[in-house]
Amino acid sequence: MPMKAAAVVSATTAEKPKKRYPGEAKGFVEEMRFVAMKLHTREQAKEGEKEVEKPEEQAVPKWEPSVEGYLRFLVDSKLVYDTLESIVEKPAYPFYAEFKNTGLERSEKLAKDLSGSKNKAMPFQSLLLLVSEKILNKKELEFYKWDGDLSQLLQNVRDKLNKVAEAAKSCPYTVTIKTSCSSSSYTRDKISLAFGDSYGNEVYVKRLDDPSSGTFERCSTDTFQINGPCAYDICYLYLLRSGSDGWKPESVKIYGLYEDC
């Protein structure tokens, strides 16, 4: 997954007030809704902000449902839900387990619907009725049945997403910087280190052996600890300044809570 951190814009040691984006105060889900609307056109969503640039982004003037198309939709949906549900069933990361048994699982119900569509005793033409809202009232698919109030199930998942996202803002990780003595001068300059997160906020590091210091030296390997956005958000570091002769570190390695960059 490509990563990109915002460039550091200042060399001051005091942190700037955090820039808040639309919806952020209400939580991660609301913040992402604002971001999503920037990627949608008005034809796709009433709050969409993107200009129509491609034919596929225009509103469909007339939609003619078909049995083949509807069955393809069910099959594709089954694949999506199978994948999502298998990920949370055996979570690679601890926070995935938060999304087990939310009540939004659809894989088993879709399996029943698709099994019914293959039943020879079921007239093929009756499937055509499933693609019309008028006829769907006469035969409700398992896919559209929920064990509980759907709006509440959705809200429960939103709350879980907000909880996980909030916890991710403070996950600890370390940065190891290996430096060399290949510069023309061998002075052990102390060089400040900081990075910008995806919002452009500056986050400063602390040395593990000296929490009051946020600098590193030449000819050494130093380890820092950062509490801030998770490691996968900041795989690229930006130095506030280099040495007096333009020297920069030989390598920078980030060790995250769950995975390395």
From TrEMBL:
CDD domains: HemeO, PLAT. GO terms for molecular function: heme oxygenase (decyclizing) activity; metal ion binding. InterPro entries: Embryo-specific_ATS3, Haem_Oase, Haem_Oase-like_multi-hlx, Haem_Oase_decyc_pln, PLAT/LH2_dom_sf. It holds the Pfam family ATS3. One of its GO terms (biological process) is heme oxidation. SUPFAM superfamilies: Heme oxygenase-like, Lipase/lipooxygenase domain (PLAT/LH2 domain). Its EC number is 1.14.14.18. Keywords: Heme, Iron, Metal-binding, Oxidoreductase. Belongs to the heme oxygenase family. This is heme oxygenase (biliverdin-producing). It comes from Hevea brasiliensis (Para rubber tree).
